[in-house]
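Quick entry between incubations.
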Amino acid sequence: MALCPSGRDRTQPTGGATTPVVRHCRTERYGPAVPGSVQSVERAAAILRLLAEEDEPIGLAQITSALGLAKGTVHGILRTLEDVGFVEQDQAGGPYRVATEVFRLGWTKLDQNELRSKALNWTDALAARTGESARVAAFHAGRAEVAHHVFRADGGTQVLVTGSVVPLHASALGKVLLAFDPGAVRSIANQPLPALTTGTITDRIVLQRELAEIRDLGWAGSVGEVESDVAGIAAPIRDRGGYVVAAVGIEGSVERLCDDRRRLRPALISHVVRAGRSISRELGHGRDL
Amino acid sequence: MTEKYVAALDQGTTSTRCVLFDRQGRMVSIAQREHHQYFPRPGWVEHDPAEIWSIVKRVVPQALVDAGVDAGQVVGLGVTNQRETTVVWNRQTGLPIGRAIVWQDTRTAELLAGMSTGIDPADVLARTGLPMATYFSGAKLKWMLDRDPQLRPAAERGELLFGTMDSWIVWNLTGGPGTGSGASEGIHVTDVTNASRTMLMNLETLDWDDDLLAAFDIPRAMLPEIRPSIGRLGITSDPLPGIPIGAVIGDQQASLFGQTAFDAGEAKCTFGTGSFLLLNTGHEIVRSRHGLITTVAHKVADEPAFYALEGSVAVAGGLVQWCRDNLGLIRSPAEIETLAAGVPDNGGCYLVPAFSGLFAPHWDNRAQGILVGLTSYVTKAHIARAVLEATAWQTRDVLDAMNADAGIPAQSLAVDGGMTGDNLLMQLVADALDIPVVRPMMAETVALGAAYAAGLAVGYWPDRQVLRRHWQRAGEWRPQTDPQRRAAELASWRHAVALARAWGDRPS
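Done. Structure below.
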């Protein structure tokens, strides 16, 4: 029996009642090879296993020696794993660890309609308290999509915008998703940040700084960044495990949302943050009832 | 000065919730818990009243804790409830004699068919506004008493008490059997809206009707006192003492009130377990010629009662729940929209959810649910779509009846209830009705209406005009289907309904 026949596709229909043969052949020190396997994927898997087994983040040199591979090879794989969000570092050049997102693989993504049903009462209350239109958005199928929309209280013709897309780098809802959802961040990597107004942040460094601030504060603001006379405030919605799954916020004229120095009104901010907490509770965050 | 609030206790068909509202009618906190549904036989639906009371005891304090509010800050409590569901309990022990028979339960179909020989259905309709359907409490209570010969004498001696869910809860809230040290017994009351669903109350006198009590063989001693819906009727002693109960009102009448449909000509449709279209007819008792029922809308202390025409649909959200619990088609009710949105139409299949027979406008106790139009093309997504369409078309059927009775077609429909979170359903309703569908900024109008009623009773709000100003449009769906397609779909739906009725009529 030939060991490791190369180029054989395991999923290829062979016809007849053939029992799949499990072949183990340890060709290198970093783990079992699978027939027809792609070497770099095997190596990436080995790196992930190694990182997952360690309690502390480990450095490039350690990984290299543990797997018996060339430093350049390991570095290339680590960079790719970092790009796809499976591995992370606290600082450039520092040790690596498995990103939390890996542990969420296979978790069911929150259904947009489920999200709306949980958010319904609290977005109503938010719209009633602030007098502004309220929205819930989630990063879904590669875009930041509005899952729920409540009209502004003062009437006027308004149309439901559920299902439309909000700009990640310019809107308050989008910035919350960027700050907390690695999938959202990845979607704009290597993409231009278009200037929607003169106030839109188009510089990545500036955006990074703002996202760090959003993570600190627990809310995001946008003043004249999507449309010159429109402002927004948004806060994260967390699931049972604390993971940010969506954002809730209000949007309205700069005049109403800001004071005369174009600073967002603290009372409105606290309404938005509280709505975010209430919806998170509906999703099971910090609740045991 | 500490902030004051009004609480609503909404005891619904699937869950019980306590909701706190502020002076602007905005929700401050909500605590909610589901209870068990018992389906012991085909057509039977039961709840455990003791479980429901234990849930009430949990959610009321929980809502206050969530809001960081103490009982002293709650100036009034409004109680609202699933209607018609029938409870009998022992006055001394405070224990129910068995499970409650739920409004959807059809076990009394035979009993009613047998009764109609000794009682004129037209007379019952004239006195109560109700057709002889399994839906209402009277026959459920008679069924309970008929089953055990010891019960009727015990009821006559005043040892057993009857009530709809409101009576059971208020009796417990105000002291129950009164066995605690120095505690007095709870008050045994119901309100005119709940009493109007028993088939035992006369719509004109708003009192129990002796002829009907005789016809159903129900001892008057076991019946609660009928009170106005709005007005102080007691103080809670359990689970939190000292909160004035300002209102008791059936859930659909509560949501009519919560939509601020205070005056004649104003209507709403609530999408919950069932769906219920109510039109306020003012102080006039209007008789439907198209299969709607006449019911009490609300009543303030010494003022004349407001009445309503109602189109009751037994199964709406209940069908979605069935898809989750009995079929495993979805994991949560909201997912029905995700599944249904995966296909552009129903693929030719139609579902008539006649699980409790058919209510308005057909009133057919024997009709049974059917799924028709199946081919190998049909997927679960098409069935999910048929599930949502069933609610839309049933709403169309009761709206047509209401338009025919009113003589003026409705220009738009105010909707509420948890199912209004389903955007696809709301679009389908707008498409089926061919008028815009409007959702207010508080989908939980049942709780809001009970809070409004209680708040008015205790003077938290000065008058109804203040409440009208709280009403805001939160969403709107406009019809998008072309008239030809609508007409074809409606014809198919009506054919399917005829089949559900024919199936119920099969030779046994």
